[in-house]
Amino acid sequence: MNRAVLLAWLGLIPFAAGAVAAWAGIETIDPFGKLVTIVTTYALIIAAFMLGSHWGLYVARGGEGSVDLFTVSNVGAVGLFLAALLLSGPALIYAVCLLFVILLLIDFQIARANYITSSYLALRLKITIIVVISLILVRIAI
User: N or C: which end of the chain has fewer CB within 10 A?
Assistant: First the structure.
């Protein structure tokens, strides 16, 4: 297993731990704060990272290609920022879930354009499913 794959799987730990903690009735983790805030903050950071990855892919390809990752990543970043400002709790969890699904759909497009490998796309699919399920489990439990 290469380092990128390992890090992707390790990145699931806060999502899965958040879901387990929520179902165990843990509402606050001292000294960090409310569980829902911790989980959504991590989700926002990961979503921003994914958007940045798309922007970096656009730059690395010299702006060429059939998928406008520059616009997608910038519009997504602004949307993510607005969601963080305007939403909280359950609504923010749903918004971040939606963004993760949209990012996955974009990855399907860029895989068809041969920007990413099929093995990376398969990894993204698995990771996204687990992330979204974990976030929904947090939402149901809170």
Answer: N
Domain assignments of the chain as residue spans, ordered by start = 3-141
Per-residue pLDDT reduced to its tens digit, 67-92: 789 999 999 999 999 999 999 889 99
Strand duo 33-34 + 28-29: pairing: antiparallel
Q: SS3 of 33, please?
A: strand
- pTM, two decimal places: 0.93
Which 3 state secondary structure label does DSSP give 62?
coil
pLDDT of amino acid 23: 96
Handedness of CA 21, 23, 25, 28 (dihedral sign): positive
Residues 27-45: pLDDT tens digits? Answer: 999 999 999 999 999 999 9
Tokens of 74: 């910038």
H-type alpha helices, 34-117: 35-60, 69-86, 89-112
Phi, psi of 64 (to 5 degrees): -90, 160
The percent of the chain in helix, strand and coil, each rounded to the nearest 5, is 80, 5, 20
